[in-house]
Automatic annotation (TrEMBL):
Cofactor(s) needed: Mg(2+)
Residues engaged in binding substrate: 274, 331-333
Name assigned to this protein: Succinate--CoA ligase [ADP-forming] subunit beta
Positions that bind ATP: 46, 53-55, 112, 117
Keyword annotations from UniProtKB, A to Z: ATP-binding, Ligase, Magnesium, Metal-binding, Nucleotide-binding, Tricarboxylic acid cycle
Gene for this chain: sucC
Subunit structure of this chain's protein: Heterotetramer of two alpha and two beta subunits.
Cofactor mode of binding and number, as noted: Binds 1 Mg(2+) ion per subunit.
Length: 399
């Protein structure tokens, strides 16, 4: 689960991380009020969307010469003008895709005189199973480009969970950023705050880009991207409230209500599978047959009729779906019960696209009979390879 920059900064400030003062705004009036509460003489009006690259982004409705999603203002009037121009517009950045994101919130914050910009991130390193700190002197820009062109400028420091954060980690980060004296001490303090926030919130990533040195030699977090482990949200009710549903895919939100693990993808073959591993294998074999999956969907071990129906509806709500492949292994769930669920769901949603079903496991014959006798145009498949070949052929035939 991700949150907005302004929420991330409010959170980090509680852990003693230095951030410029600022206020969120949902309207032009609120933006003006927010600006009046800040001292000036420089303000920054920042689009709040769950995507980076806002500064270099472009608004769809404004011409190519218009300013991006992070704008400096030298007066409250200028803040008003920018807010009026940005709110309700669609911002396209390297991270939003071509569709862009509608800007519904702004962050009005103190403008800072920047001397230098660094990159500092904390994330879970899957290889070591530890929290890793990634630091680079090349901040402000696209870190992927830095990693690609000048990998020697990226330093990674892993933290042993048994010891937690130690003073030497702070020194290592300061050294990686080329900081000495008081700035090195500030870097260690920033790292301590970020690490405490990371641990305290069950974060999966905290990315600061840029971490700036100001003209008066202060380290300051100017941009923050924070994501949490969704599986831990049950013990962070206050953080769960920061979720902004307008930033999420509507079908993924619907799926989460039914406890279905659904992720939308770009292809046209909808998949309904039980078990994450089988779901991955199903997507692979669709690709092997020359097509692309429209989604990942794991209905879980205890899928019942309600879940299957909800899953069908979610898959079909995606207009790019041209066919559905159901691949279920009846272990805990028996195949006949699943077949009943599929038939009921297919009737309820008035299925118009081809449906291929592969059932295997307990009571498989009863399940196959139910599908065959349903009178619905369901194509039965014998195994996974057969199922994938059949759905790809059906979709091609229908096109
Ligand atoms: P994004 O990464 O989405 O483009 P940032 O918040 O990093 O958005 O802003 C882009 C750039 O704008 C930063 O690299 C920094 O140079 C400048 N900037 C951001 N916030 C401030 C601020 N409070 N004061 C001065 N400059 C800022
Ligand atoms: Mg940034």
């Amino acid at each position: 689960m991700n949150i907005h920059e302004y929420q991330a900064k409010e959170l980090l400030a509680k852990y003693g991380v230095p951030v410029p003062a600022g206020h969120a705004a949902m309207s032009v009036e609120e933006a003006v009020e927010a600006a009046k509460q800040l001292p000036g003489p420089l303000w920054v009006v920042k689009a709040q969307i769950h995507a980076g690259g806002r500064g270099k982004g472009k608004f769809k409705e404004l011409g190519p010469d218009a300013k991006g999603g992070v704008r400096l203002a030298k007066s409250v009037d200028e803040v008003r003008e920018h807010a009026a121009e940005m709110l309700g517009k669609t911002l396209v950045t390297v991270q939003t895709g071509d569709a862009g994101k509608e800007v519904q919130r702004l962050y009005i914050t103190d403008g800072v005189d920047i001397a230098k910009e660094f990159y500092l991130a904390l994330l879970v390193d899957r290889e070591t199973g530890r929290v890793a700190v990634v630091a680079s002197t090349e901040g402000g820009m696209d870190i992927e480009t830095v990693a690609h062109d000048t990998p020697d400028r990226i330093h990674t420091i892993t933290i042993d969970p048994a010891t937690g954060l130690m003073p030497h980690h702070g020194r290592a980060v300061a050294a990686a950023l080329g900081l000495t004296g008081d700035l090195a001490k500030q870097a260690a303090k920033v790292l301590a705050g970020l690490y405490a926030a990371f641990q305290g919130t069950d974060a999966s990533q905290i990315e600061i880009n840029p971490l700036a040195i100001t003209e008066d030699n202060k380290l300051m977090v100017l941009d923050a991207k924070v994501g949490f482990d969704s599986n831990s949200m049950f013990r962070h009710k206050d953080l769960a409230e920061l979720r902004d549903l307008t930033e999420e895919d509507p079908q993924e939100i619907e799926a989460s209500k039914y406890d279905l693990a659904y992720i939308k993808l770009d292809g046209d073959i909808g998949c309904m599978v039980n078990g994450a591993g089988l779901a991955m294998a199903t997507m692979d074999i669709i690709k092997l047959n020359g097509a692309e999956p429209a989604n990942f969907l794991d209905v879980g071990g205890g899928a019942n009729k309600e879940k299957v129906t909800a899953a069908f509806k979610i898959i079909l709500a995606d207009p790019s779906v041209k066919g559905i492949l159901v691949n279920i292994f009846g272990g805990i769930m028996k195949c006949d019960i699943i077949a009943d669920g599929i038939v009921a769901a297919a009737r309820e949603v008035d299925l118009k696209v081809p449906l291929v079903v592969r059932l295997e496991g307990t009571n498989v014959q009863q399940g196959k009979d139910i599908l065959a006798n349903s009178g619905l145009p369901i194509v039965a498949a014998n195994d996974l390879g057969d199922a994938a070949a059949k759905i790809v052929a059906e979709v091609k035939k229908a096109a």
